[in-house]
Amino acid sequence: MTPVTSMAGRHVALFGLGGSGLATALALQAGGARVTAWDDNAAKVAEASARGVGTGDLRALDWSGVDALLLSPGVPLTHPEPHWTVGLAHAAGVEVIGDVELFCRERAAIAPGAPFVAITGTNGKSTTTALVAHILREAGLDVQMGGNIGTAILSLEPPSEGRVHVVECSSYQIDLAPSLKPTVGVHLNLSPDHLDRHGTMENYAAIKERLVARARIAVVGVDDDYSAAIAARIRAGAPVSVERTLADGFMRDGTGVVLMRGGEAVERYDLAGIGSLRGAHNAQNAAAAIAAARVVGLDRAAIERGLRTFPGLAHRMEQVGRIGRVLFVNDSKATNADSTEKALSSFERVHWILGGKAKAGGIAPLAPYFPRVAKAYLIGEASDAFAATLDGQVPVERCGTLDVAVARAAAQAAEDGAPEPVVLLSPACASFDQFPNFEVRGDRFRSLVRALPGLVPVGG
Q1: Which residues form the Mur ligase C-terminal domain (predicted)?
Q2: Residue of 11, 83, 134, 148 with catalytic role
Q3: What is the mean pLDDT of the chain?
């Protein structure tokens, strides 16, 4: 835990007692703050009270004595309209901040020189965060990883000069962190997302820009126009590209990433054969991670060692194992067509398991990748709609449930004459018709695959 000593003696209202909210309340109290916490979910309020957190309905609070409102990232700050607590705070002239802001203030107070790598982007931020942390750990550094990737930032150990914090930041968290000023700020890319919470694409981009605007070194992907404009405005020290030629920065070159200086390649990092970093999107993630690791102080050998040993993220193009030539890949986190596109573009011959609770737009945008699909195995509610989209372009088998789909795909992939047939779970759908979340869906796929005769775990 990071006790928030910078708020000692102050009264803090807190709304939202999910995982990060409860961690924030405990960290504030550990640092000497007085907390009044609330949530619309009575069970969460009861849990917080049982953990010793001060609770109370914020509607009944005397806001004249409140120093700050801590808002959980999932609670609307501005759109579609401010949460009622935000209105109460603004009426009383009380600042509204989040847990990342508390971490930044604590770092400034107790260890201003502590290395801090903050990472954002519409896509790829979790993989890049995990990859940076892995590279640094493999080099023997004391690394704390968290934020939007799983462990609440204030549940991590406190900042210190000999410890590196690698933190994934969502746009919601950035919007609540006005003093965010990392050692290395990484911004990967931008595409339309969360516009219900930010109003417009321009506002969304402006919020993302804050993460890199005050960083000591800004690592910025420049392959989309919004991000390229950000890089130009802030004069990013380390541009990253997998599509454009750079005179200076990190760019994709064949099967690797090269560091360019003055139009010349001065270092090369080979990604060939690293299964966890397949595809152009992972080349971008790797390039950003390489740039961040170099700023932290690692040499080329240490970075290459970390790249080669990176296991990947669970449920994101996770290589589960092989049976002969057949590779089984868990991409359950791909809950829409845009995410599934990354997986389909990374493999040449795919036995594709897809379906669930469909998102707007379906899978029609994936048509350019249909020639890579040997067969589609449909599950869940979206089966009829997806079968109609695939009709005449991809052979289809309606399987209904995941266990049937895995068995059928495994059997037919074993008979496929391609050099590396891939059984890919990349649903392009939410899981809620058959599973509580994508993690449970991915865990089920993994357990079904591991039960297949002859499976050899990747790396095993």
Answers
A1: 315-429
A2: 148
A3: 95
Q: Which stretches does DSSP call E strand in 116-270? A: 116-120, 142-147, 163-168, 184-187, 217-221, 238-241, 249-253, 256-261, 264-270
Looking at 79, 194, 357, 359, which residue is catalytic? 194
Separation CA 67–CA 30 (nearest Å):
17
208 is in an annotated binding site: no
- Is 126 labelled a binding residue? yes
264 and 161 assigned to the same domain: yes
Q: What is the pLDDT of residue 193?
A: 63
151 marked ligand binding residue: no
Mean pLDDT value across residues 258-286 = 94
72 is in an annotated binding site: no
Select which of 11, 44, 83, 125 is catalytic: 125
Domain membership of residue 457 (yes or no) is: no
Sign, Cα dihedral of 271, 272, 275, 281: positive
- How far is the C-alpha of 51 from the C-alpha of 320, rounded, in Å? 38
Q: Is 90 exceeded by the pLDDT of residue 104?
A: yes
Show Cβ contacts of residue 229 under 8 Å, excluding neighbours closer than 6 positions.
205
* Tokens matching residue 342: 């990354």
Of the three residues 308, 336, 363, the one that is the final residue of a domain is 308
pLDDT at 460: 43
Place of tokens 């939007």: 148
Cβ atoms of 288 and 186 closer than 8 Å: yes
Distance, in Å, from the CA atom of 365 to the CA atom of 340, rounded to the nearest integer, reads 10
Q: Is 187 one of the catalytic residues? A: no
Q: Is residue 59 part of a domain?
A: yes
Is 148 considered catalytic here? yes
Q: Does 41 carry a binding-site annotation?
A: no
CA distance 33 to 49: 16
Contact 427, 356 (CB under 8 A): yes
